[in-house]
User: Fold Peptide ABC transporter substrate-binding protein from Dactylosporangium matsuzakiense.
Amino acid sequence: MRTFTVAACATTAALGLLLAGCTGGGDTAATPSAAANSDSVLSYNETEPASPLVPGDTAEVGGIGILGALFNGLIEYDAKTAAPRNAVAESINSPDSKVWTIKLKPNWTFQDGTKVTAKSFVDAWNYTAYSPNLMKNASYMSHIQGFDQVNNVGKDGKQPAALPPAKEMSGLKVVDDQTFTATLSAPFSGFGLQLGFAAFYPMPASFFTDRKAYEAHPVGNGPFQFVSYTKGTNLLVKRFDGYAGAQKAKVSGIDFRFYTDLDKAYADVLADKLDYLSFTPWTASQGNKIEKDLPASRRASYAYVGHQAIAFPLFDQRYSDKRVRQAISMAIDRTALIKEVFNGKRTPADGIVPPNAQGYVANQCGELCSYQPQKAKELFDASGFQGPVTLTSNVDSGNQEWVEVACRSIQQALGRPCEFKPQTTLGAFRTALTNKSIHEIYRTAWVAGYPSIENFLNPLFRTNGSGNVGQYSNPRVDALLAKADAAPSQGQAFSLYQEAERQALDDMQTVPIWYQSATAAWSTRVHNAQPTQFRELEFTTVTLGK
Assistant:
C-alpha cells in the first residue's frame, strides 16, 4: 500500500520511484499452505523479491510490492490518483524546504508489538545511508545533511576499505518520541513527497540487533504481517489486526505466488485458481482474446507511472560510443512492435518521463526515439562495433516476446545479427545486473514510487543512483540534477530536470520503448479490485466472495 497531506507545508514539492531477497522460480505451488487455501486469503501473482525484505535494500517491483503490504510510511499515495496523504505522519512542515519537522500520529505499532517512534525512522534512515551496510536505496538519503560523512562510496560505485568518518547523519535529530527533524544540505522542495517510498519506511529495534533474524521473519507496521516464505513458490502474509491505519484490510491474508510463466498465471485466473494478475501476458491481447475470455467485470486496463526500455551496461567498453546506443534506439520500430505484440495498446515513448508524471514534456527524445533505419545503420557502421547485437531479459514477467520483436527490428535496420538471451527470474536477473555479470543490452523498466520527473532522473541517471545499474555517469547531468533539487520553485526545478532529461536521452544509455500500461484480470470471487498507478492492487479495499 503506497498511499500526503503535508499539513501547513510552506512549499509545494514536486512528487517524483521504481524500478528493479530471495531468488528462484517456479510456476506456482499447487497448495502453498493450508492457510493460503482459506476462502478469505487472496492469491496474487508477484515477481519474487531480488533481496531480503529490507526496505533500504529493496529497489525492484516484486520486493516493493510485498513491502507495501508489510509497511506504511510517513505518507501514502492514493490508488486512483497517486495524490499524497499523511499516513504515519501527523504533519510534515518546512518553512524553507531545508529544515523539515515531522510529527507522528500516536498509537502506531510494529507487528512485534513495539511502538513506532521518531527513532524508528531516524535509525532506519541512518542505517540505509551508511555505505558499509551496502543498501541499494542509500542515494535516497543523499539530500540529508551529513550524508557525505556516512557514505563514502566512490564514483565507481564501490565501498572503499576505509570506513566513513561518521555512522549517523548530522541532519537527523530526534526531538521526542513523536517528533524528529530532517535538515537537508540544501533546500529540496521534493523531499516531503518522497517520504512514502520504501527507502523511508521505519524499522523495528529488533532489526538493528539481529538483522538475520529479521530477514528470516520481516516485521513491519503495515496492514499485513509476514507468515512464511517458500523460495521459488510463494510468500504468505496475514492481516495485522493491530494496524493503526485508516483503511483496514478486508481479506484475511495475501498469498503472493511466484509464477515464471505469465501464460500459466493467466490460465489460472481463467480457471479460478489464481485470484489476481496485475499484468496479463501479451498473448491475451492478440485478437482481443481477453475480451472473449473474461467479462468486463473481471478485468481492467490502466496506465501506471513508468516506462519500459532497454539499456546498456556502460561498465562494458563495447558500448562506450554513444553512436552505438543512438543507432540501436533508431533501429527499433516502436509503433510496429506495439501493434504486433500488444494489438496497438501501448503508447510509444518520446522520452524518459511518462505523461502521468509531474514535469512531463512531450517529445523530449526527438528523432532518437523514432524509427530511422538508414540513419541508424550509418551511425552504427561508423562506430565500428564488432560482433552481433545481443539483448537479454528475464522471462517471468512477459517480456520475451516484445524483446525478440525489438531484436528483429534491430537486425533488419542494421544488417547485423541480433540475438536474444533469456534470463530466468527478475530477482536473479537484477542480482546479475548489480553484480555486473551481464554484458548484454538488457531490458529494464521503471515504476515510479512517486509520480514526478525527479523520480525518473535522480535514481536512474545520477552517478551511483539507486536504480543506476548500468553505471551511467555524466557530470553535466549530475550538476543539472543538483541545481534542480535546490531550485527555489517547482517551475524552475522542472525546467532543470527537463534539461537533464534531454542530455540523458542524447547519451542514450537508456532507450525508452513505451509508456507503461497494463490489463489486470481476476477470479470470479474478487470484488472491489482497484489497480494502482504503481502496478499494484489496492490491498485494503479488495474483498472476496461468491
Notes: The first helix runs from residue 61 to 70. Confidence is low (pLDDT under 50) at residues 1-37. DSSP finds 16 helices and 19 strands in the chain. Residues 323 and 383 are 6 Å apart (CA to CA).
